[in-house]
Structure formats: C-alpha cells, structure tokens
Amino acid sequence: MMKLGHSSQRRTPKRDAGMLALTWLGLALIMLLTPRSVQAHGGGVPQLINAEAGPYWLSVWTQPDPIRVGEFHITVAVSEAPEPGVSTREAGDLVLDATVLVQAESLGQAAEALVAPATRDNAVNKLFYEADLTLPAEGRWQVDIRVSSAAGAGNATFDVEALPPAAFNTLLGLGWPLWAGLGLVLVTTGWWVQMSRRQKGEVDRA
C-alpha cells in the first residue's frame, strides 16, 4: 500500500520541466517589464544629415523604428556650417554650447504642439543633444529643430509618420507594477509547487 502511495506522488521529468518553465517565464517577465532607470539612447534612424540651418549644419536621428504613438526620442548633432563660398560637404566643428529646442506638430489633426529642450546632460554621447517627446496620436508629424548660440539662430524641419501603438505596448500601458507582480507570482508559485512535491516525496519515502 505504501508503495502505491509513493508511486502516485512521484515527480516525473515532464512535471519538473513544466515547473522549471513556469519559473523561467516569471523571471523573464520581471526582467522585461521592470523599467530601466537608465535607458540607452543615441543614434537611430537618420532624418537629417548635414542639413543647413542658418550658421549651423544639423544631423538628426530618431527612435524607435518604426515611430509609434508613445515615446519619441530625438538625437541632434550641431556643427558649424562651412564659410560662405566654400564648396564642401564636410561639417565644421561641433557646437557644444547651443540651446536646442525640439517642437513636434501634428499635420493631420488639431492638437497642441509638443515642445522639449534637447540637452547634452543625459545624452549617451556628450557631443550630441537629446530630447524625449510623447506622441499622443498617430499620423503625420512635423518636427522642427531650433538652434541658437552666440553664432546666431537657425532651424531645420522634417516629417515623420507615427503608427498606432503596438499591441504589446498597449499591454505594458496597464502598468509595469502589475506585470512585474504577475511575474513574481509565477516565480513564487513555481517554487512553492516544487517544494511541496519534494516534501511529499520525502514523506512517502519515509
């Protein structure tokens, strides 16, 4: 009789694999959905390369790719424009003391323009200026980069198309604490089930 009871509670490789998979799934959710205090930015899709903007040449990159409703990251490089009459496509020295302002305006609907300063303070590469905007709606947006310093002022514009938010991003919008908590519950449940089965097996063997 004892042998039959022990056999019914015996752990199988399939059960162990299932518990292990559950545990790893929970850990993956926690690692994926917990927000990072420091995000790696810089670079991205080139929107402008050595675009003339008064006394400057501007190069601009954006993230993510494709651009969607939500976070919109802009990286700007400001260079001195060549002297008038000089035929060259090589930018001059980088300008590191400029004031850079980014403005995004919807071209398809009446919406308030978004404005944010681009600074070198939190840039990954301190030679560039970076800014973050949150696009509230899909559609065509015009982005205006305005630069000013002792050398003067200038601006350059480009258009981008914002796609609807991805389904996964919509789920994340429910809140990272909820999803991280779910991951923690899965990990805890997997661990508890494994420990329970192990204890039952020890009791049966005794």
User: Mind telling me which CATH architecture of the domain at 45-169 this is?
Assistant: Sandwich
Strand order of the largest sheet: 1-2-3-6
At the fourth level of CATH, the homologous superfamily of the domain at 45-169 is: Macroglobulin (MG2) domain
Give the low-confidence spans: 1-9, 34-40
Total beta-strand segments = 8
Percentage of residues in strands? 25-35%
Task: Tell me the major beta sheet.
Answer: 4 strands, antiparallel
Share of helix, binned: 25-40%
The overall pLDDT average reads 79
What Rg, in angstroms, do the CA atoms define?
27 Å
Instruction: Name the overall outline.
Output: elongated
Structural class: alpha+beta
Could you provide a short overview of the structure?
The chain has 206 residues and is α+β, with helices and mostly antiparallel strands. Helices cover 31% and strands 34% of the residues.
